[in-house]
Amino acid sequence: MENNQTMQELLEQQEKEMSSIKIGQTVSGKITKVLYDELHLELNYGFEGIISISELILAKDETIEDKYSVGQEISGEITKINRKDGTMYLSVKKAVIESTRKELKEALDNHTILTVHVERSIEKGLFASYKTETVFIPLSQIDVTFVNNTAAYVGRDLEVYMIEMDLRRNRIVASHREVAHERVEAEKVAKRAQMKADREAERARVKQAKEDLFNSLEVGQKELVK
After folding, report:
1. What is the spatial distance between Cα 219 and Cα 216, in angstroms, rounded to a whole number?
2. Angle at 74 between CA 71 and CA 76, to 5 degrees
3. Per-residue model confidence as pLDDT tens digits over 110-159
4. pTM score
5. What single string gives the DSSP state of each residue in 50-101?
6. 205 vs 15, 192, 211, 222, CA distance in Å?
7. Which element (helix H / strand E) includes 130?
8. How many helices (H) and strands (E) does the chain have?
9. Are 175 and 141 in contact (CB under 8 A)?
10. Which pLDDT tens digit goes with each residue over 169-199?
11. Is the pLDDT of residue 3 over 80?
């Protein structure tokens, strides 16, 4: 009787956990099958996960077989649930986009530096990539001095501060100028500190040299110094 009750409790718990799964959640599972156009995953609670090629992030000319293999663990956001046949449709792309946007928002809120890669330029600024997102760096925010040739920055990695993020307008703006300005100021402070340290070291050296000279003289010689 006790065993039956325990089994019933386990079934109820499993049903409760299955019913709590919702679209938009991120789940993980191991790849069981790699096809040319989709991946199959083993998920918890008896569900099978399916990720189509359109929901993966692949480099140009990269195939599913190039990037994924059986046994590999992968995470994706649930886009559709079919409880009758026990399948879930997932999206790696959506999960990565959400994660990337969260990182950008945290960088904006906490005023922390991110590194972006400049992909292309226009007269009014630069378009850079940060994982799945495109970040715009206006001309006035590229550097501490006026930039005449924005094309010279294409292909470079730049450290930036996020200064605006409006996903409804698809607008993410950053500044490299602010980071560069901080570096210049930090270098000035460090240089002044080094110069001060050098002066103090020189004064200490001269003082010590005088003391060493004084201490090396004989008593009669000290009288002559006076």
Report:
1. 10
2. 145
3. 999 999 999 999 999 999 999 999 999 999 999 999 999 999 999 999 99
4. 0.67
5. EEEGGGS---TT--HHHH--TT-EEEEEEEEEETTTTEEEEEHHHHHHHHHH
6. 80, 20, 10, 21
7. strand 125-130
8. 5, 10
9. yes
10. 999 999 999 999 998 887 777 888 888 888 8
11. no
> When comparing pLDDT for 226 and 104, which is higher?
104
> Which residues lie closer than 8 Å to 110 by C-beta, 6 or more apart?
none
DSSP class of 39: E
Tokens of 210: 């005088």
More confident site: 182 or 218: 182
Enumerate residues 6+ apart whose C-beta is below 8 A from 172: 104, 133, 134, 135, 136, 162, 164, 165, 166
139 close to 176: Cβ distance less than 8 angstroms: no
Provide φ and ψ at 171, rounded to 5°.
-125, 115
Q: Say if strands 48-52 and 87-91 run parallel, antiparallel, or are unpaired.
A: parallel
The answer for residues whose C-beta is within 8 angstroms of residue 86's C-beta and 6 or more apart is 46, 47, 48
Q: Is 133 helix (H, G, I), strand (E, B) or coil?
A: strand
Supply 159's token pair. Answer: 């450290």
Distance CA 14, CA 130 (A): 39
The two structure tokens encoding residue 169: 């307008």
Inter-residue contact 161 to 174 (CB < 8 Å)? yes
Largest interatomic CA distance in the chain: 112
